[in-house]
Write a structure and sequence with these properties.
The longest helix has about 45 residues, at about 150-195. Strand 2 (about 135-140) and strand 3 form a beta hairpin. The chain is about 75% helix and about 5% strand. It has a single domain, classed as Rhodopsin 7-helix transmembrane proteins (Rhopdopsin 7-helix transmembrane proteins, Up-down Bundle). With about 280 residues, it is mainly alpha-helical.
């Protein structure tokens, strides 16, 4: 939430980088992932308002699915944008630099609209858990369950979701490979021109390395989560131990991402140092 506040401050009060808009959105998405990732704060809010358990479960499952889709789409967008940004002026991607910045808001609207409409099926199949003996329910959390889906529907949902995710992860891996090639080529050129073995990394290189790290972590964590989720839905079986492993994997990426962003962004480090020095001055 501190990171989200920083990005909002930068976007409102300063000249933000295009990646700041994407990072701000990704930070907000990860906060929502934590709030909807189980019987957490959002559930407590619903209970304090005396909201019906069915509505609570439908809302929680729906928002959780939307945020999961937004997370993979936004991470993919961040990878594509950085690949376009560092591409040489002679490459085919160079002509998309200004177009991507110009239409960034429209890209956001398309991504959000797609994720909200695609995840609408969760509303019909999620409900409050009532009885462990019910064979048409699969308990997922302490108070929520999923209605039994027809096998054909389950296979259809699995196929569409898999196709979407494989496509986006494929784009991430392609752009990541492209960025690695560009960075290696640039480093060889710098060493040849300046004959320096240890050169200070440029801001573009640091940003690219950060995004590469985020993409690698996301891909690894995502596929573990995907295998667990798809196996549970197709076999219609949710083991409590498997559910705990899935939650750990689901929280890993939102936990690592802000730490990587903070450590790699000099603006955040400088702001923290300034706040620390002002705090010390006020004390003494």
């Amino acid at each position: 939430m501190s990171l989200l506040g920083f990005y909002i401050f930068i976007i409102i009060g300063h000249r933000p980088k295009p990646t700041d808009l994407i990072s701000c959105q990704l930070t907000f998405i990860h906060i929502m992932v934590f709030l909807t990732g189980g019987d957490l704060l959002l559930t407590d809010i619903f209970e304090s308002l005396n909201i019906n358990n069915d509505f609570k479960c439908k809302a929680t499952f729906y928002i959780s699915t939307v945020m999961r889709g937004l997370s993979i789409c936004t991470t993919c967008l961040l990878s594509v944008f950085q690949a376009v940004t560092i591409s040489p002026s002679t490459s085919l991607l160079a002509k998309f630099k200004h177009k991507l910045k110009k239409y960034m808001i429209y890209v956001f609207l398309c991504i959000w609209s797609f994720c909200f409409s695609y995840s609408s099926s969760r509303i019909f199949y999620a409900l409050g858990f009532t009885n462990a003996s019910e064979t048409n329910q699969m308990q997922v959390t302490k108070s929520c369950s999923l209605l039994h889906m027809n096998y054909i529907i389950r296979v259809l949902v699995f196929t569409v979701t898999t196709s979407r995710d494989v496509f986006l992860v494929g784009i991430m891996l392609t752009t990541s490979t492209y960025m690695v090639i560009i960075l290696c080529r640039h480093q060889r050129q710098c060493k040849y021109l300046h004959n320096i073995s240890h050169m200070r990394a440029s801001p573009e290189k640091r940003a690219t390395q950060t995004i590469l790290l985020l993409v690698v972590v996301f891909v690894v964590m995502y596929w573990v989560d995907f295998i667990i989720s798809s196996t549970s839905v197709l076999l219609w079986m949710y083991n409590p131990v498997i559910l705990r492993v899935q939650k750990f994997v689901m929280y890993a990426f939102p936990t690592i991402t802000p730490l990587v962003q903070i450590s790699s962004d000099n603006r955040i480090i400088i702001m923290m140092k300034n706040m620390h020095s002002k705090h010390l001055q006020s004390l003494f």
